[in-house]
Amino acid sequence: MRIAILLLGAAAAFAQRNMTYEGSTALEFANDKIELVMLPQGGAFVSMALKEDARRVNPMWDPVRMARERGLSQQFGPSKGHFVCVDGFGPTTREEQAAGLAFHGEANKLPWEVLQSGAAEATFRVKLPMVQEIFTRKISIAPGEQIVMVESELESLLGFDRVILWAEHATIGAPFLKLGKVAVDASSTQCRTKPHTEKGPRTFPSGRDFQWPVVGKESVRVTPASDGVMNHIGCLMDPKREHEFITAFNTEEKLILGYLFRRADYPWVQHWMNYPANGMYAWGLEFGMQPYDMTKQEILALTPMFGAPTFRWLPAKSKVETRFLMFLAKAPEGFRRVEDVRIESGRLVVEDQSAGKKITLRASRGL
């Protein structure tokens, strides 16, 4: 695959370049504010960093690096960073496994074709042969901004309506993800711990309903003080909002990774909170069209959940489109939690209303 380096003026306001990331062919997008690294094999966003940050702290989950640093074997295959799960989220049935359908769908495992590469954007496409769908993704970064616009389209090649599962498996990891030092905030309302029967590191009861972010007497918005635990919860995004948000705030680095998306596209988020004793911490902020990573049979059995559907329809020979914004920003002193994220007057505003603090980022494109 050939990607040209694109320069705008003498200051190189925007550029794309080929590179290698943890042994994989990668593509770097950069402007004067941020650097974003994507893997054309599977389309994962594996690194995002602020140019003003001398340490270039990357909040994305990198199990390859973590395993290497700890002398461990790689446990998660090609999965890393923020990858897309479509069409499929989580396990497959016995029959689907026999037919060759993969865990978390096909899109994150196949090579993506470059359709277009321009001054401030690039468009990719991948055909999903098992489910007979075409997935297209456009990535745009405007000069002078630290926001990434991601626009996606899923097209059915079949002549009948079908249920689809689609999640943006946005995942943060160590060392950004540190015990007791990272808070996740979201415009979520009703939540339920993922039903389970197995014993082990899970500490939340099975199928417990609660209001974000308190399970029983325990707040789940901050990473735990000790490791050795793993839990899943599914949350409905606020039905009163048009645009929903989820953010991760490292209180030591004063660094916030965040997402803003249309509720019509992604009405649910699953939290995968994994803190193994080996230090390979991960928190999946998995916003999508369903509350959990389950088979389609299991997801359909949950509908409705909190009065809302737990899946999305893809009509015959039709397309479903989504979009979201991804941003990275430094928080000012005194900033404690994210209580709102919104677009107003060409700006993205991240606000801690209780502390009277806000972050304002230039945003030439809204949702």
Summarize the structure.
The chain is mainly beta and 367 residues long.
Question: Main attributes?
Answer:
367 residues, mainly beta, 8-stranded antiparallel beta sheet, 7-stranded antiparallel beta sheet, 3 helices, 26 strands, 6% helix
Number of domains: 1
Counting DSSP E segments of at least 2 residues, the number of strands comes to 26
CATH topology (level 3) name: Beta-galactosidase, Chain A, domain 5
Distance between the termini: 31 Å
Q: What portion of residues is helical?
A: under 10%
User: What is the molecular shape?
Assistant: globular
The major β-sheet equals:
8 strands, antiparallel
Order of helices and strands: EEEEHEHEEEEEEEEEEEEEEEEHEEEEE
Uncertain runs with pLDDT below 50, 5 residues or more?
A: 1-12
Under the CATH scheme, which architecture would be assigned?
A: Distorted Sandwich
Strand order in space, largest sheet: 6-7-8-9-23-19-18-12
Name the beta content range: 35-45%
Identify the CATH class. Mainly Beta
Explain this structure:
- The chain is globular.
- Helix content is 6%, strand content 44%.
- The chain has one domain: Beta-galactosidase, Chain A, domain 5 (Distorted Sandwich).
- It has 367 residues and is mainly β.
- An 8-stranded antiparallel beta sheet has the order 6-7-8-9-23-19-18-12, with no helix packed on it. A 7-stranded antiparallel beta sheet has the order 5-11-21-20-17-13-14, with no helix packed on it.
- It contains 3 helices and 26 strands.
- Strand 8 (133-140) and strand 9 (147-156) form a beta hairpin.
- The model is unreliable at 1-12 (pLDDT under 50).
- The longest helix has 8 residues, at 63-70.
